[in-house]
From TrEMBL:
E.C. no: 2.4.1.-
Matching InterPro entries: GPI_mannosylTrfase
Cellular component, GO annotation: endoplasmic reticulum membrane
Entry GO MF terms: alpha-1,2-mannosyltransferase activity
Protein name: Mannosyltransferase
Biological process (GO), any one: GPI anchor biosynthetic process
Length: 158
């Protein structure tokens, strides 16, 4: 009985707690921004989103729609991002001139004030982070056993 209780406490309170902690930190942090805009660069549905944020804020996550048209070689947005994160960011947030602009294709999109991602992604998008003046704001615990996305990080624009 004791091993089950220990497993229950660990799995329920400690293991993979990053997404919940992220939403708590974001809820406190976005109050400092006039128009916060959050981009989650994580597998779709990794965070509880609005249910824990309790704020009217623009948020976007990578989508993972099923292949309802049964197209061959189908990749959803999360798959496409995972394949080449830097190219995906360049396509969606291509700087024009002063680094504040967006590609004409996505002219209605502004650069997010916050990026939420797992630390293993940082090295793949470091140029984007540097070019757009994002810096690490928080590093949060996710799990003791690395599953390829161990630590959650939040980056803010200056």
């Amino acid at each position: 009985m004791l091993p089950n209780f220990i497993a229950l406490v660990y799995l329920g309170m400690v293991h993979q707690r990053g997404p919940l902690d992220t939403m708590t930190v974001l809820r406190q942090d976005i109050a400092k921004f006039e128009s916060p805009n959050i981009l989650f660069l994580m597998p779709c549905h990794s965070t509880p989103y609005y249910s824990h944020l309790h704020k009217n804020v623009s948020m976007r996550f990578l989508t993972c729609e099923p292949n309802l048209a049964y197209r061959g070689n189908y990749f959803d947005e999360a798959d496409t991002f995972e394949k080449d994160p830097a190219a995906w960011l360049h396509q969606h947030y291509n700087p024009q001139g002063n680094g504040e602009g967006i590609s004409k294709e996505h002219s209605d999109i502004i650069l997010p004030s916050h990026l939420v991602l797992f630390d293993v992604l940082v090295s793949k998008i470091k140029d984007f982070l540097r070019n757009h003046k994002y810096h690490l704001k928080h590093r949060l615990f996710h799990a003791h056993i690395e599953d390829g996305r161990r630590v959650q990080a939040e980056h803010n624009r200056n």
